Queue: 2 jobs
Job 1
Amino acid sequence: LPATAGPRGKRAAKLPDRGPVSEGSGAPDPIATSECFAEMLAAGGRGDLRYRSLLAHSPVGLATCDMSGQIVEVNESWAGLVGYRPEEVIGAKAADLVRADRRAELGETVRKLINRESDHVVSEQELRRKDGTWVWVTSSVTLERSPQGTPQHVQSFVMDISERKATEERLRDSEQRIRTVIESLHEGVIVHDFEQVLAANDSAKRIIGVPLDQELTLDVMAAAVTVHGDGTRVQDRDRPSIRALVTGQPQFEVLRGVKRPDGELRWCLLNAVPLFHPGGDKPYASVISFSDITERKRTEDDLRESEMLFRALAEEGERLASIVESTSDMVGIIDLAAGEVLYMNRAGRDMLGHDELAEHVTISDVFTPQAERVLREQVVPSLRHSDVFSGELGMRTSDDRIAQVWLNLVRHSDSEGQNHCVSVVGRDVTERRRAAEVLTHQATHDSLTDLPNRTLLLAQLEDALATAKANGTMLALLFLDLDRFKGVNDSLGHDAGDELLVETARRISAMLRPGDLVARLGGDEFVVVCGDVSGELQATAIAHRITTSIESDPILIGTHELSITASVGVALSDGGLAHPESLLRDADAAMYRAKDLGRARLELFDESMRQRTLVRAEVADELAKAIENGEIAVHYQPCISLTSGRVTCLEALARWDHPGRGTLHPKEFIEVAEETGQIVGLGLQVLTKACHQAHSWECQLGEEAPRVHVNLSARQLSASNIPDLVAGVLSRTGLSPGKLCLEITESVLMEDAAVVIDTLYALKALGVVLAIDDFGTGYSSLSYLRRFPVDVIKVDQSFVDGLGPDPEDSAIVAAIIGLAHTLELEAIAEGVETAEQLQRLRELGCHNAQGFMFSEPQPADDITPLLTVFSAAERIRQR
Ligand code: C2E
Ligand code: CA
Ligand code: CA
């Protein structure tokens, strides 16, 4: 072997290792084969016959050209390759058999070989067949030189590679098709080999937000896929799963957010499929495909959201249901049309006494018939116009009680706007109602006797009058006042008084006919209203029956047996004109008349009383103005000492200087003033004026100034602050207390003896003089007389009137004067008009006398001269 054999031999020795380069064809490598032959030729030389025959029958085509390019020798295989017999191609130009554009390449190959730049040149070529078609071959071209090194022949070994080329062509086609398909996909597809992106379609770039003319790199891709499927940012711990996209782990349908450079987030479903060589365990590439499901996800999210909302609502519903079950109010659902209770919560079941509400509970089971009627006749119609109805209805409990329930009914409308079902929310107000009833009862009843009070009486009276008017019947009102009740209260205490009132109430009530009314107006005043009375006769008969029941048997209070009487005024409704208040006032007036006429009697209200009542009301109105305008004047009537003839005192008497009617006397207004309470203000005015006047006389006459007498009414006396008032007036006017005498009528003193006695002492403590007025008319108890801190007794005019020839009349006056002497009291005879009376009084030892005989009451200015005359006469007499 020549020197070059070494490296060639080495190369040849390596052959088996090379293995197939193009896989799958199974054919011998044409390049390797032709190179091998070329080596053989070079080694053996053209002349070696062994090789020649070998080559002639080789499956590898062999062609030899001279240096001009003319084919000088071909074997069977080569000729067969181009479709000729060998002898047909001898002499042909080799270049004519290749494509025109590759012919220059042939020349270049030869040039390289000649210049020894290479010892063989391998290339792929197409050769033209005899039939004009082309066949792909691989050729290995070598140069044959003479022993001197002169190039002699060009040898070319060729092998048919058309099959491989066809395969390659097919592959190229299919790859192109795949590319087209990939390009047309909406899905993004990226093929990468873990280092770089091999292919990426436009969709991939669009989804990731890379401009189409820019390259999509793996870094860009990994940076974009940053967000979890649930929308949270990818944390570092999640990096591996993203990296997995580019590290070859298969991933299927993973949801990833893709953040575009402009910040928009797209949601993608990603697949990563690694590619392996057959038998290989490491992927050489990976195909990532991803679809943008942002819109779909949004819809899904919306759906999920609404599903969650629905679930939340359902849960809310459950919660609500449990709240409804546990609330303390009754909650129920009622089908009004079917008359059925569809649901009732625990509070409702408890309220109505049902453990569990049985099926088919009807409205009649739980509502009273009356409430049911209200439901049908009021609630149902009202719910047609409004959504809610509120009201109190009676509900039936399982133990047959009736619970008053305040209900709110709320309409449920179905799709047709019908309101068959209502929600019922209710609260048991039975207790509250009961409490309200108690309160109402308390407000309308007298707590002591439990009889209706004035308020309720007036309401009941109004109804009774309306009924009487409608029926054309008459109605009697009895105003009943116990006599001397104050005395019981004062002497036996309030508890005894209360007992007396309760017993009286009981006795009155017992006498009533069904339908009659009785009320206590306060104090010892009772009112009885009798309906359907035929006339005065029947009314008085009823009144008598009642007073008899009170008076016949003494009332036992503790150990005391009290005989009590009552004064009754009766008024009749006259054919419907009556007003409750006026009827009551009429009976009241009649009752006062009964009192005036000596108590324990019955008076019927008549027309004259009505007139009087009207006049009184008028007087009261005018009097109020008069008191305010200072129209009340004070006149003074002297009282003469029967021993000295001096004016020892002056009685202050109220006069009303009426603008229209001239000077009015007390009988025209004092009674009204007493009734209305105006006497308090009036009395204070009189007291003040009298004290002023007395003080001025005191200033004028000093010690000889007369004592001024001022009358105190019952009302004034019972005012708790009367001693303060008097003290105030005294200090304001500067009058010496001893120059003031307060007159109190005997009846007033006796009526309220126990209370009055304290007041008397308080007044006495001021230093004023006290007198009992109208003595002899008031049934004085002598024991009281002793206890009263009084100084003067005024003998009532009615006794003085009788003084004269009749020794019996003189006897009473004598007795009173005798009593005064005994008790060391000063006696003043009132209303002395005649010398005869004066004479008798002198004889009886009376100290002082007052009357028209000496002087009528006169204004102060007219009195003053009398005082000075008398005192001048006195001074003369004393001299
Ligand atoms: P009284 O306290 O008994 O007063 C005496 C009444 O007898 C006076 O009537 C007087 O004018 C009248 N009178 C005096 N002498 C004679 C006489 O010889 N013959 C006749 N027929 N009457 C005589 P007057 O002024 O009309 O007073 C009537 C009553 O009015 C008084 O009776 C007294 O109870 C009451 N009154 C008068 N002024 C006041 C007052 O300022 N306050 C109070 N609370 N009552 C007063
Ligand atoms: Ca008097
Ligand atoms: Ca009198």
Job 2
Amino acid sequence: MDKFKIKGKKPLEGRVKVSGAKNAAVAAIPAGLLADDEVIIENLPMINDVFVYGDILKYMGAEVLFNNGVMKIKPNIHTIHHLPYELVKKIRASYYLLGVLLAKYGDAEIALPGGCNIGTRPIDQHIKGFQALGAKIEIDQGMIRVRAKELIGAPIYLDVVSVGATINIMLAASKAKGLTVIENAAKEPHIVDMANFINAMGGNVKGAGTDVIKIRGVEKLHGCTHTVIPDQVEAGTFMIATAATGGDVIIENVIPKHLDPITAKLIEAGVIVEENGDLIRVISEPPLNAVNIKTLPYPGFPTDLQQPITALLTTAKGTSIITETIWESRFKHVDELKRMGADINVEGRTAIIQGVEELSGAPVKATDLRAGAALITAGLIAQGETEISCIHYIDRGYEQIDKKLKGLGANIERISEADQKQKEGKTRGEIANWTKQEYVCLEAEAPGTPYS
Ligand code: EPZ
């Protein structure tokens, strides 16, 4: 299992290009199956979640070619049942297959998606939407099956603002008879991206980006070419890392509007942020001011940037209070930050951060994707060397983050454990043994295989 080794205290400087949005990509790939002929999806990030989803579509029988961010999908699938846990457990967003297969075939059965390290991941609102459209739901032995002879459009009022449920109901309603109205819908940029994709296939979705989305079902959806939006979470991660290190970076291929909540918060902390077309410049001179943050659905402060900005606030002047309203246990990165000298107290969904002079490098472990981003940010500002293990989580959602950071002057190396042990003269057998016994990740997932 690889590690990152970071020597801190180097301000990030230069230009970096943001990749396509992970959370838009993992919805667009299954949505491509809605069409009756070939779909081309561009600007996909080269990350493990995308590789895994391509594997799943191939398992289902689709013809999938993926090369350099462009995926061509010929949706002639033969398998819509018994999508096994082994396959779907690798990716949280496998639940989008339910909405897609229900719309196209009136039937789908996949293993229930597991939870993850930020809290339970219920899908009761997805199920509420499918049932409103006329689907029958069976949950048995860890599998969920959704079936409907015919889907009829209906009004659906979401009990909670849910990105996944909003997208999944849009997918299912895209071919239902009549009008579906989703109220209390999520408004994230990837919701709008999905609506644009369905409309490009000949669908009829209106109101995405507001809390009322109207979907008029159509008989057929045809192939098209869709370009996924830039990743606002990746962009925000680089903005935070630049601010934390006292750097000066131009971040390219962004939609500044999508970054408004993080821009506003960084300016409040004393950072200079300049927008110019599809790029944003961040200039910072630490120490920064402590700020309070409350995560909320878009356009509130994004929960996915709560962990990285926590790392930045560990050395801000004063006391910062972070309230995580979306996930019940999204503070697993705090213990690791405290090993680096951070002064943070977590009480329920609130973290109280007392700014300290300096963090010190230490061996730490990523517990989930954005916790990994937080530890990278902390390593970049710490005195000395930080080793981050379990970085497969990070590779799920950030394309070549080490290469991009190196391009900004960071002292970061990706170390393969086997090579490292090899260098220390251990035999292959000893390495295998060492890796099995000593190396514990919370959830060692075998990433998908990149292929073209
Ligand atoms: C998406 O997860 C993202 N993942 C998450 O990003 C992100 O944190 C989250 O939206 C919020 O923005 C993908 O898009 C693949 P939700 P999702 O449904 O759709 C509750 C990352 O780091 N809820 O908007 O699963 C739920 O418990 C990941 O990129 C229900 O109660 O999130 C949570 O409290 C992590 N019932 C809240 O709603 C449901 O049926 C928001 O969840 C569904 C959700």
